[in-house]
């Protein structure tokens, strides 16, 4: 879109500054090169948190429990908050980046928590330590943190649509039984939430 401003935030990898999106737009993987975009591109290479704060967006991060590491994010804008924690194992057998209570504090009173919920109890113990949480663990985190809406995300790729529907029903029943008042949705393609 002409005159549209697009801000890009790099990934720092050692001494290299990586812009993964534009690295893929090289003509071989994507039909348009970055220089052919009609929009105004601005690279934010330093103090990205400060830049976002100046624009009314507060972002904080937390280390996730995953064998390869990773970060989760809390985004606050106009008094509303969304927490995004994917690839996070709440009960991992390896060294913890954060304890359960640390995640509770990070998620406290969020309007929306989008959390990894790849596994069910029947998947264990075979997949324990793979870096993903049980649906029941994500529900317990949402309850402990007093979030308003939990979105179960990062489904096991082998699950069928009907199995995902069952997970939704089971989670809703759990919240109803525990009288939490928390809304719960399983993520699906095209899902939009108004916050």
Question: What do these coordinates show?
Answer:
With 195 residues, this protein is of the alpha/beta class. The protein has 5 helices and 10 strands; from the N terminus they run βββαβαβββαβαβαβ. The strands form 3 sheets. A 6-stranded mixed beta sheet has the order 5-6-7-8-9-10. It has a two-stranded parallel ribbon with strand order 1-4. β6 and β7 (80-85) form a beta hairpin. The longest helix is centred in the last third of the chain and has 17 residues, at 161-177. The two termini are 26 Å apart.
Structure, briefly:
The chain has helices at about 20-25, 50-55, 100-105, 135-145, 160-175; strands at about 5-10, 10-15, 15-20, 40-45, 55-65, 70-75, 80-85, 110-115, 150-155, 185. The chain is of the alpha/beta class.
How many helical elements? Answer: 5
Instruction: Calculate the terminal CA-CA distance, rounded to whole Å.
Output: 26 Å
Please give the number of β-strands: 10
Largest sheet: 6 strands, mixed
Order of helices and strands: EEEHEHEEEHEHEHE
Estimate what percentage of residues fall within beta strands: 15-25%
Mean pLDDT: 88
Q: Which regions contain 5 or more consecutive residues with pLDDT less than 50?
A: none
Secondary-structure-derived class: alpha/beta
List keywords for this structure.
195 residues; two-stranded parallel sheet; 6-stranded mixed β-sheet; alpha/beta
Secondary-structure map with pairings?
Blueprint: E1 5-8, E2 11-13, E3 16-18, H1 20-24, E4 40-43, H2 48-54, E5 57-63, E6 71-77, E7 80-85, H3 100-107, E8 112-116, H4 135-145, E9 149-153, H5 161-177, E10 183-186
Parallel strand pairs: 1-4, 7-8, 8-9, 9-10
Antiparallel strand pairs: 2-3, 5-6, 6-7
Helix pairs in contact: 3-4, 4-5
């Amino acid at each position: 879109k002409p005159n549209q401003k697009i801000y890009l935030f790099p990934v720092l990898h050692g001494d290299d500054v990586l812009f993964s999106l534009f690295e893929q737009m090289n003509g071989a993987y994507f039909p348009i090169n970055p220089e052919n975009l009609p929009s105004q591109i601005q690279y934010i290479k330093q103090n990205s948190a400060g830049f976002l704060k100046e624009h009314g967006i507060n972002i904080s991060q937390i280390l996730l429990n995953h064998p390869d590491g990773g970060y989760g994010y809390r985004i606050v804008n106009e008094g509303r908050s969304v927490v995004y924690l994917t690839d996070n194992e709440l009960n991992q057998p390896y060294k913890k980046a954060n304890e359960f209570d640390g995640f509770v504090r990070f998620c406290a009173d969020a309007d929306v928590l989008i959390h990894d919920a790849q596994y069910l109890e029947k998947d264990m113990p075979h997949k324990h330590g793979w870096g993903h949480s049980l649906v029941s663990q994500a529900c317990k985190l949402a309850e402990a943190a007093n979030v308003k809406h939990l979105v179960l995300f990062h489904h096991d790729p082998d699950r069928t649509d009907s199995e995902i529907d069952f997970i939704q029903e089971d989670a809703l029943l759990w919240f109803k039984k525990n009288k939490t008042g928390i809304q719960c949705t399983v993520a699906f393609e095209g899902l939009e939430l108004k916050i």
